[in-house]
Design brief:
With 226 residues, the protein is α+β, with helices and mostly antiparallel strands. It is built from six helices and seven strands. It has one domain: 3-Layer(aba) Sandwich (Aminopeptidase), CATH 3.40.630.30. It has a seven-stranded mixed sheet, sandwiched between helices. A hairpin with a 6-residue loop joins strand 6 and strand 7. The longest helix is centred in the middle third of the chain and has 13 residues. 29% of the residues are buried.
């Protein structure tokens, strides 16, 4: 990003959610897997009429409504099995027999774990265009998302999966999330995992996911200054 544009980037950064629909009958296990897609916008200075609001990034979260699934007699195995990413979380942190969080996960999170049901928020993907990266902007956006969308959730999870998000991913009516996956023990994934740890996420067992208890007080991330 051109440093002449602004020294107060955050005042012109906003997020917008894409509308989604949920059926009322909730008959299929996939009805309890809610995808929350959104865009990250940058607005130019008010007095700069030559610039228009532009999309500088995007994100996708997955909210597992396990509480409702259980109340309606739907197997959580079937719910998580609707998506390869969510099933990986299930295999790592949910008991197959009683479909509750594993003791290992609860003990690991300790004081930052306050049980409010089995609902989970998975930060599936978050990307910012290269020219806008740096100065903790990604962490600031991520912190904001957790604060806004983790209500009624016991655990937030994220998997360090490096990829290059660019303008080419932004289509007219959707975000093209195609990416080159990297191994969870690659140098890039390890660096990204350490980046997420600044926000309080921690790695447990051999899972690719890092986890965060929603009772944990999120650290203040220094504002981005250009």
């Amino acid at each position: 990003m051109d440093s002449t544009k602004t020294s107060d980037l955050l005042s012109r950064i906003s997020i917008g959610m894409e509308p989604s629909r949920t059926p009322l009958d909730l008959e299929d296990p996939s009805d309890y897997v809610n995808y929350l897609d959104g865009l990250i916008y940058y607005s130019p200075e008010d007095d700069d009429a030559n610039e228009r609001e532009e999309i500088i990034g995007a994100f996708r979260m997955v909210h597992i409504d396990a509480n409702s699934a259980t109340e309606n007699g739907t197997s959580l195995f079937d719910v998580y099995d609707c998506d390869a990413e969510t099933f990986e979380f299930f295999e790592s942190f949910v008991n197959l027999d009683d479909e509750e969080f594993t003791n290992e996960l609860i003990d690991f999170l300790e004081s930052e774990f306050v049980f409010s049901g089995n609902n989970v928020l998975i930060i599936d993907r978050i990307g910012i265009r290269p020219e806008y990266r740096g100065n903790n902007l990604g962490l600031i956006v991520l912190r904001n998302l957790i604060q806004r969308f983790s209500k009624g959730v016991s655990v937030v999870a994220i998997k360090p999966a490096p990829f290059t998000f660019a303008s080419s991913h932004i289509k007219q009516n959707y975000i093209d999330w195609q990416r080159s996956e990297t191994k969870k023990d690659s140098i890039e994934a390890i660096k990204l995992g350490k980046y997420y740890q600044k926000l309080g996420f921690n790695k447990i067992n051999k899972s690719a996911y890092l986890v965060l208890g929603t009772a944990k007080k999120l650290p203040i991330i220094p504002q981005a200054v250009y």
